[in-house]
């Protein structure tokens, strides 16, 4: 996605148009999570603990921040975690592989939050295919004492796209981040042959994806340029989450719309940004699975989330860039080029950062994804 630097050229030539908008009616700041306030349900039939646990679960990452889940409430502390077809991304995720991985990340947050509130989780994977609606049956059982897991790790998690340093991540830090998942996590440092290949092919995959009108149109449906749209939907990609700030953000909030995403200038600026991103990192972390079954995809999504919830304390940023796995011609070569035999599920650009701002991506309230 574009950031402030990449929008300067557009914004600088458009100030005259911006000046024609009354400051009193123009949107003057980026909408962030703090502007929305608490997304906990008010007056809900849910127990307070259920409400809090499900909200923390919903802070999991997903492609374009679609939040592709809903929850069927069977009874107190008994739920079905479900696959929301209306939030699929068929142009870039036609098999719903990424959707199921996101549901896995949701479950990891749920497990950590449940422990914080004094419950253990019983998970039963009921989904047989990536397209099934009912994916995981969850029952929470009260424990004698809560765990000491800090749920602030969940609420402060953020995807960063810029400001990556090239310092190679130490082996000790990689081991800490991997934990018990070391067999499924591979780090290729900057300067390595594998990183050079991933950099080049990430650009190539993005060129292919930007040229596909169906993929670009799908993206346009999930960008919330205006604060009004952001507050209405509480999902998708906002100017804040795309790291567009200042005058460029003012211009984008007030003058951009879905049709602009389809223009060649937007596609070209996006590709410029991708080239800049892959040129600045400490390399890539690759996460694999044993196979591509629903159970393994869910487990791998949980594995990703465990990693993401550790990196902030180490001053490390993670930027998932999945286009290689989404585009024909690049997805088939990634195993051979990295020397990895198991299925690759995540390609994560990584690096140390000197500044780690708070979380800004929006989330729906629990009321909006809970069903009877």
Strand content: 15-25%
Task: Give the averaged pLDDT, no decimals.
Answer: 92
Indicate the percent of residues in helices. Answer: 40-55%
* Spans of at least 5 consecutive residues with low confidence: 4-21
- Report the major sheet: 5 strands, mixed
**Count of helical stretches:** 16
What distance lies between the first and last C-alpha atoms, to the nearest angstrom?
A: 37 Å
Please tell me what the overall shape is: globular
Write down the domain tally: 2
The CATH class label of the largest domain is Alpha Beta
N-to-C order of helices and strands: HHHHEEHEEHHEHHEHEHHHEHEHHEE
CATH topology of the largest domain: NADH Oxidase
Structural class: alpha+beta
- Rg, rounded, reads 20 Å
CATH superfamily of the largest domain: NADH Oxidase
The tally of beta strands, per DSSP, is 11
Strand order of the largest sheet: 3-4-2-1-11
What's the architecture of the largest domain, going by CATH?
A: 3-Layer(aba) Sandwich
Structural features, described:
- It contains 16 helices and 11 strands.
- It has 372 residues and is an alpha+beta fold.
- The chain has 2 domains: 225 residues, 3-Layer(aba) Sandwich (NADH Oxidase); 132 residues, NADH Oxidase.
- The protein has a 5-stranded mixed β-sheet, with helices on one face. Strands 5-8-10-9 form a 4-stranded antiparallel β-sheet. The chain has a two-stranded parallel ribbon with strand order 6-7.
- β3 and β4 form a beta hairpin.
- α8 packs antiparallel against α13.
- The longest helix is centred in the first third of the chain and has 20 residues.
- The protein is globular, with a radius of gyration of 20 Å.
């Amino acid at each position: 996605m574009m950031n402030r630097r990449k929008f300067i050229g557009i914004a600088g030539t458009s100030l005259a148009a911006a000046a024609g908008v009354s400051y009193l009616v123009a949107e003057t700041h980026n909408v962030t999570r703090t502007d929305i306030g608490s997304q906990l349900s008010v007056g809900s039939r849910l127990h307070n603990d259920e409400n809090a646990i499900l909200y923390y679960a919903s802070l999991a990452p997903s492609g374009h921040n679609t939040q592709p889940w809903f929850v069927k409430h069977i009874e107190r502390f008994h739920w079905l975690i479900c696959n929301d077809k209306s939030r699929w991304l068929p142009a870039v995720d036609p098999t719903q592989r990424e959707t199921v991985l996101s549901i896995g990340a949701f479950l990891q947050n749920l497990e950590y939050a449940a422990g914080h509130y004094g419950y253990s989780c019983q998970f039963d994977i009921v989904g047989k295919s990536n397209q099934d609606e009912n994916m995981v049956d969850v029952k929470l059982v009260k424990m004698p004492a809560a765990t000491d897991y800090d749920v602030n790790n969940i609420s402060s998690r953020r995807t960063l796209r810029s400001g990556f340093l090239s310092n190679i991540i130490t082996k000790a830090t990689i081991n800490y981040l991997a934990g018990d998942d070391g067999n499924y996590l591979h780090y290729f440092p900057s300067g390595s042959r594998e990183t050079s290949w991933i950099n080049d092919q990430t650009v190539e995959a993005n060129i292919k994806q930007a040229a596909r009108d169906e993929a670009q149109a799908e993206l346009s449906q999930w960008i919330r340029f205006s604060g009004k749209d952001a507050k209405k939907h509480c999902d998708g990609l906002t100017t804040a989450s795309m790291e567009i700030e200042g005058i460029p953000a003012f211009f984008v909030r007030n003058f951009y719309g879905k049709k602009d995403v389809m223009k060649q200038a937007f596609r070209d600026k996006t590709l410029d940004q991708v080239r800049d991103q892959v040129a600045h990192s400490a390399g890539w972390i690759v996460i694999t699975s044993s196979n591509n079954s629903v159970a393994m995809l869910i487990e791998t999504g949980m594995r990703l989330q465990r990693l993401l919830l550790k990196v902030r304390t180490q001053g490390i940023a993670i930027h998932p860039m999945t286009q290689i796995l989404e585009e024909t011609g690049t997805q088939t070569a990634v195993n051979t080029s990295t020397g990895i035999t198991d299925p690759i599920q995540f390609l994560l650009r990584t690096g140390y950062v000197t500044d780690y701002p708070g979380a800004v991506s929006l989330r729906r309230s629990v009321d909006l994804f809970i069903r009877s």
